[in-house]
Amino acid sequence: MSSLYHTILDWSEVWALLIPFSFMLVYKSEDPYLKPVRIFIWSFLILNLFIDLIAEYKWKLGIREGDFLWSNNFIYNIESILRLFLFAWFFNGLNYQFMHRVKKIIPYGFTLFVLINFIFFEDLFYQNSFSSRLLATEAGILLFYCLQYFIYQIIEERTTSIKNHKGFWIVTGLSIYVAASFFIFLFYVYLSDVRRNFAVSIWDVHNIVFIIFCIFIAIQFFHDAKTEKKWM
């Protein structure tokens, strides 16, 4: 039973995305602010499938230690960069004028950080190249985006419930994910070196909050479709 539980949890980075994927197909929304989220679902479904296939079947695929695909860590680095840009696009697409210039500048600052980090300090594609620095920075920036979204919703006087505000469910799910993952990302490389078993166990927390994040994305697709139908 324990082995089955861990197998299900290990593959959650793939099957969890099928939840919003199915809602995206059934409850179609034409609102352009959801376009980066749809790209996120498609791209991460493919990338996470590669991550789990490498982890689970590299021996059967004839991949040996020292080969380029021996480790899937570099894919997490690529995902981190992609996730930041997609959700920066998402937040800018919500079109609320609060810290607007800061939100516009952040992706450029992050690009500069990525270039400096991987030119001078780390190797993006090195086998054991899971970059705690990159993923923790990305999580911190996304948490900032989420907090300024909620601050704006609080200070604005509105007659509608905050749950009905555009993007609320996605931002809530993203907030849970990045807040819980920040310290996991920050200390994961260190823990992998000194307490490998604990590092593996704590990644289960990441997988659980990722499932929650995916459920909240699915709720957003359902909510938007219901709202659009209401106003038709």
What does this structure look like?
By secondary structure, the protein is mainly alpha-helical. Helices cover 75% and strands 0% of the residues. It contains nine helices and no strands. Helix 5 packs antiparallel against helix 6 and helix 8 (168-194) packs antiparallel against helix 9. The chain starts with a helix and ends with a helix.
What is the CA-based Rg, rounded?
19 Å
Largest sheet properties: none
Q: Kindly report the oligomeric state of this protein.
A: single chain
Report, as a whole number of angstroms, the end-to-end distance.
49 Å
Q: Roughly what is the average pLDDT, rounded to an integer?
A: 86
Observed structural traits:
232 residues, mainly alpha, 9 helices
What secondary-structure arrangement, pairings included, does this model have?
Blueprint: H1 2-10, H2 12-15, H3 18-26, H4 35-57, H5 73-93, H6 100-121, H7 132-155, H8 168-194, H9 196-230
Helix pairs in contact: 3-4, 3-9, 4-5, 5-6, 5-7, 6-7, 7-8, 8-9
